[in-house]
């Protein structure tokens, strides 16, 4: 099975940068996803990495290192609306019909 | 607009009752999933279906049942055999992996 670890909570100031790390162990890697979830709502797709490197999408960027089993989500120019839970999810090639999720990182943005 | 609709948003169940959560999608996706979300835990897979008239157990299927008679619909029944059903239930579908899942808005089930 998968073991996906991410910090439980992070706090940052409006306008700052926050980096959310995710480490994973899989028997075969076939993609990593980041989702944003506001309290009581559905997760929404943020990014997808399958090759090593950085994917940039506006204020959000995601990085992947397959050899290290490591990814991070970088949130720049933080806004109050970025306060949410951020979920790291991995697709394992041995069970590629599904995603396995970490417990999520709750980010609180303070004024 | 295409999407996934879950209903109801809130559901209360008495001990010993079965309840059914609805999930409907108009995205023309083949694959559909049910996940359960508890505080401090990652989403856990209950059941999934990759095609109409076929479904498979996920990691925590005990006490749950599903059907997939139509491509658009994947209802989940929480039976009285599920000992700890209070949770947030999310339905998802998937068309192409580059976009990952599309999630419904969730159903919060509470046992009273």
Protein model, in words:
The complex is a heterodimer of chains A (111) and B (112). Chain A is mainly beta. Helices cover 0% and strands 59% of the residues of chain A. Chain A has no helices and 11 strands. In chain A, the strands form 2 sheets. In chain A, strands 2, 4, 5, 9, 10 and 11 form a 6-stranded mixed β-sheet that branches. Chain A starts with a strand and ends with a strand. Chain B is mainly β and 112 residues long. Helix content of chain B is 0%, strand content 49%. In chain B, the strands form 2 sheets. In chain B, strands 2, 4, 5, 6, 9, 10 and 11 form a 7-stranded mixed β-sheet that branches. Chain B has a 4-stranded antiparallel β-sheet with strand order 1-3-8-7, with no helix packed on it. The A-B interface holds A 4, 8, 30-31, 33, 35, 40-45, 48, 87, 89, 91, 97-104 and B 31, 33, 35, 40-45, 48, 50, 56, 58, 88, 90, 97-106, 108.
Explain briefly what this protein structure is.
The complex is a heterodimer of chains A (111) and B (112). By secondary structure, chain A is an all-beta fold.
- List low-confidence stretches of chain B: none
Q: What's the main sheet of chain B like? A: 7 strands, mixed
Largest sheet of chain A: 6 strands, mixed
Average of per-residue pLDDT values of chain B: 93
Instruction: Note the beta-strand portion of chain A.
Output: over 45%
Distance between the termini of chain B: 36 Å
Beta-strand fraction estimate of chain B? over 45%
Rg of chain B over CA atoms, rounded to whole Å, is: 13 Å
Mean pLDDT of chain A: 94
Radius of gyration of chain A in whole Å, from Cα? 13 Å
